[in-house]
Amino acid sequence: xxxxxxxxxxxxxxxxxxxxxxxxxxxxxxxxxxxxxxxxxxxxxxxxxxxxxxxxxxxxxxxxxxxxxxxxxxxxxxxxxxxxxxxxxxxxxxxxxxxxxxxxxxxxxxxxxxxxxxxxxxx
Amino acid sequence: xxxxxxxxxxxxxxxxxxxxxxxxxxxxxxxxxxxxxxxxxxxxxxxxxxxxxxxxxxxxxxxxxxxxxxxxxxxxxxxxxxxxxxxxxxxxxxxxxxxxxxxxxxxxxxxxxxxxxxxxxxxxxxxxxxxxxxxxxxxxxxxxxxxxxxxxxxxxxxxxxxxxxxxxxxxxxxxxxxxxxxxxxxxxxxxxxxxxxxxxxxxxxxxxxxxxxxxxxxxxxxxxxxxxxxxxxxxxxxxxxxxxxxxxxxxxxxxxxxxxxxxxxxxxxxxxxxxxxxxxxxxxxxxxxxxxxxxxxxxxxxxxxxxxxxxxxxxxxxxxxxxxxxxxxxxxxxxxxxxxxxxxxxxxxxxxxxxxxxxxxxxxxxxxxxxxxxxxxxxxxxxxxxxxxxxxxxxxxxxxxxxxxxxxxxxxxxxxxxxxxxxxxxxxxxxxxxxxxxxxxxxxxxxxxxxxxxxxxxxxxxxxxxxxxxxxxxxxxxxxxxxxxxxxxxxxxxxxxxxxxxxxxxxxxxxxxxxxxxxxxxxxxxxxxxxxxxxxxxxxxxxxxxxxxxxxxxxxxxxxxxxxxxxxxxxxxxxxxxxxxxxxxxxxxxxxxxxxxxxxxxxxxxxxxxxxxxxxxxxxxxxxxxxxxxxxxxxxxxxxxxxxxxxxxxxxxxxxxxxxxxxxxxxxxxxxxxxxxxxxxxxxxxxxxxxxxxxxxxxxxxxxxxxxxxxxxxxxxxxxxxxxxxxxxxxxxxxxxxxxxxxxxxxxxxxxxxxxxxxxxxxxxxxxxxxxxxxxxxxxxxxxxxxxxxxxxxxxxxxxxxxxxxxxxxxxxxxxxxxxxxxxxxxxxxxxxxxxxxxxxxxxxxxxxxxxxxxxxxxxxxxxxxxxxxxxxxxxxxxxxxxxxxxxxxxxxx
Lengths: 123, 894
What we know:
Order of helices and strands of chain A: HHEHHEEH
Number of strands of chain A: 3
Largest sheet of chain A: 3 strands, antiparallel
Largest interface: A-B, 34 and 45 residues
Largest sheet of chain B: 11 strands, mixed
Helix content of chain A: 55-70%
Shape of chain B: elongated
Oligomer: heterodimer
Number of helices of chain B: 27
Low-confidence stretches of chain A: 1-15
Low-confidence stretches of chain B: 483-489
Mean pLDDT of chain A: 77
Shape of chain A: globular
Strand content of chain A: 5-15%
Radius of gyration of chain A: 16 Å
Strand order of the largest sheet of chain A: 1-3-2
């Protein structure tokens, strides 16, 4: 019931580790993109699409659950603002905790990539 | 970082719970914006509007799916989810009405019984009394074993000594419960409860005057009374000019000086008028120990400390009381007894209430265990359904939620039902009356009852939810879907269930044994020979007011006229008068010390009683020696009849003809013993028989002799009327006869001797009834539990047992195996139960009559009964097990 679901930190346990990695990557991409400038959801999907199609495999809409999770972890903050065309949209912005997390994640990502490269380069 | 973010996530979810609808609306807006942007983007790429829309939707992914995923990520999908869960749970319960009804009813009854009894027990035994500093209030009484006096009260002289000299008592005082007085002015005679209380005691107890004033300290002028709030409203309509008005009580005029604030009920809840009691330090202290006494301890002082100090103070008593020698003090072994006020008020019912409370608690435990078993069994039976759901992608949380809501609904429904039941139990006091149980008037339905019911419901909800979800967390989906053999996990669960059932058996046995003890005690009580015939006898009290019957001869003459008129009524077999009734407690001020005139060393404390000549014959009280009263016995020094115990103490075998006198030798004559009758029981059979010295109520024709005795039956006798048929049918006739003789006299406390006999055992019977109900229910529930567990065990081992039979086990062998399982649980339960039973018997000890707590017969009987019922409970599933067709079993899936 209500009380029960409060304790859960993941809506859907990822069925495979592949998805887990992809989810983590998506989070990282969002953080990195927002570190450059605050944006709304649509803007984010297009920027990420440019970088990697794989990540938004399921559909553009799947960025929103990720945004919610990041917001609940306190890494991004939201606000309703007007766009250039004077339409109301929800903007996402990196928080201080978010930039710290980004730095950490970038660090571990680089280490991960470095390790994989080493292994791959060893053959 | 993880923990912090988890907490933050939880807090965020909590906040969003509150803002649910706004969240959904915001999300819809956000999605709409996204799609608009995508459509615009597509159009800029050259697509037509329709193509742009289609492409946008495709790119987005399913809107509904994304919506749900996002809302889920928030951890909260809205209130509608809860409602849906509840609706499903209700529907699921509706499909199994038996289970639903049984569980809800069990919860309701268990909660109702526990909260109602719990509230009563708390209020009577533990709640602080409604007086300021109530925990420092104590009762002071005395014992004087040297003169056969136990449980006596306080004397004015001793009270004065304590008040002056004690360093442990802050203040003390004596008071008298005065019984009922009649309001004799106005056209509506009424009887009300009165008390004599010294002014400083009223202040001590925090009494306040609603109107007028309380008695001022030191002001004990006669004729001033305070009336209760209830009386003021009821009889005087809340007249604000009541102060100073006169009131006539028992034909004596008094003035109302104050109206008490509401809900001051000292010394009794129904006390309606208070007189001021002046100090009285006259008289030999040992004969004046009939006052009641209350004192307040100084802060930090215990009752024991006070008792020791007062005991040492008593040595100074002879200095203060002329005529009281240190030798008398030493011989009497006079000693004070100090006990907390609340303790002494509730001492009589303490053990019974504790037993009741514990057995109801046991009932609750058993009921909960049964419910847990029920829910565990249910979760087991839907295990496959759960596993299939999981395999199809349902999340653990969903499944858990499903069973959670069931447990929640059962507990909630049970709790709701329990409220009116509990309230009814509390207001009806379970049939106990204020006479039987003190402080019952303080028991009321208040926030405490709601709190307890709510608390119990929540606890039960938690237990049920936990037990129903315990099995659904299994990750071994494949195992469950195949319905394969039990893993180790399964075995340990069965162990848990067996332990639970064993506990149930133990508890049921303990309650059964306790009620058997109570039953045996009851039988012994009923078997006591009361030495009098209670059949068809109407009794009532006849208080003669002081005024017109001031002279002794007028009072006695009135009695003779009344009795003669009554005897003339058709249907009346006999009519007599007496100063006491069997099975009724006597006021302690009618107890005096008597000594054998010829041998002052032989003495006994006895009640002063009165009887008309044929009283003993009428009640068939055996006359053991001598003869009944005759007119010649009415002299200045009347002849007396004594009860057997008195005769033995004072005259040995030759009581008749010997002389007895009052122990303090105040110039009253010696009385000749003319007869000896059998002892009678006092207020409680358990307390034993009374010692009585009976004086005659009689008038020799033509003379006006006034017997010289400390008491003469001027007012306050009881009239007994024996009927040929139903004694109650005589009431109107008797009333008319009485009214013809004196229209101002009411009949008080009209009852029959049969009813009095019943009343004396009423409390024991009530406790027995409740224990029997608790025992029966516990036994039933325990056996249902045992049956359930064994049946389930057999059902889930269907295949295994089939295999056994297939490879050669005989049906009898299987039967024995299953019975054996049940036997182990039962025997272990019985072992534990016996220990519990002995312990509970000890707790009941005080309320048992002539029965030992450790009674091998009772324990053996209870154990045998439990074994028999357990055997029946295990027999049925065992039979079914032995009849398993191995072919069918091998093909089945369990």
